[in-house]
Amino acid sequence: MQARKLRQDSFPHPYYPDFPDFPLVIRQTALLVVDMQYLDANPNHGIGVSFREGGLFDMIAPYFERLGNTVIPNIVRLLECARQHRVEVIFTVIEALTRDGRDISAQHRRVHLFAPRGSREAQILDEVRPNADEIVLSKTASGVFNATAIDQILRNMAIDTLLMVGVATNGCVGTAVRDAADRGYRVVLVEDACAALSMAEHDSAIADMDNNYAWIKSTDEVVAWIASDDSGAEDLANRPASAGRAGPPTR
After folding, report:
1. I want to staple 115 with a disulfide (CB 3.0 to 4.6 A). Which of 39, 42, 104, 160 is the partner?
2. With 0-12 CB in 10 A as exposed, 13-18 as middle and 19+ as buried, what is 100?
3. Is the pLDDT of residue 112 over 50?
4. Does residue 245 sit in helix, strand or coil?
């Protein structure tokens, strides 16, 4: 299934030609799973409880339906494929360093987005939980590049391509996409492995990022893409310690 190409259909623009295709190099690629945790991706915790207590759960019920029916199954597929082909997998979670949240960003404090250190809300969903040696980065703001050392970590691993999934498309995912693109990374956003609180917000974010900050692909496309490169069979431990990150791609 092809991902929806929204930008050209909704807002044709002569200055935004299609991004050129590029060969996927597994050793330089990471799957970044953004904030798939109990705080914001499970209806019985976090924001789900808040909306239900406020009598507004019907407003976001479609969001949780999309997560359960589409996004989570697709992320499971992508994780299985990435692990099979030795694509680096990295997770982010919203999690305070403290129990009382005194360290969280002012913006998260204003919108009451808070997961205490070690809480259930800070844990990644069981369905997509990390393997033992996969990287999990806790952040106290929306942007993983602003709130963690991810840029240095990716440079250390010579990664220049990011496959992004998670929530919310118009929030933490979108911020990560833009920040990564500004730093020269190739960013592939997997449209059917992301969600926003409404489809209108999701579609608007996808349209804005398509051929502007990211390549928009479907899960089917990315799974086939990963499987087409057998370089992941190489023992990554043999990569020279001096291996540097590839330069920014030419658009």
Report:
1. 39
2. exposed
3. yes
4. coil
Answering whether pTM is above 0.90, one says: no
pLDDT band at 103 (very low <50, low <70, confident <90, very high): confident
- Is residue 242 packed enough to be buried (19+ CB in 10 Å), middle (13-18) or exposed (0-12)? exposed
Rg for the chain, CA atoms, rounded: 18
Task: Give dist(CA 206, CA 243) in Å, integer.
Answer: 34
pLDDT tens digits along 182-198: 999 999 999 999 999 99
CA dist 138 and 37 (Å) reads: 11
Dihedral sign for Cα 200, 201, 206, 209, please.
positive
Hunting for tokens 């359960």 — which residue is that?
Answer: 68
Q: What DSSP line would sit under 136-202, residue for residue?
A: EEEESSS-HHHHSSHHHHHHHTT--EEEEEEE-TTTHHHHHHHHHHHTT-EEEEEEEEEE-SSHHHH
- 140: tokens are 């106290």
Residue labelled with tokens 């609180």: 197
- Residue 117, both tokens: 């250190």
Measured in whole angstroms, the distance separating CA 82 from the mean position of its chain's CA atoms is 14
Tens-digit pLDDT profile for residues 117-175: 999 999 999 999 999 999 999 999 999 999 999 999 999 999 999 999 999 999 999 99
Q: How far is CA 37 from CA 33, 63, 73, 172, in A?
A: 10, 14, 15, 13
- Reported in sequence order, the residue ranges of 40-121 that DSSP labels E, i.e. its strands, are 88-94
Lowest-confidence segment of 104-113, 140-149, 174-183 by average pLDDT: 104-113
Q: Please give the DSSP secondary-structure letter assigned to residue 71.
A: I
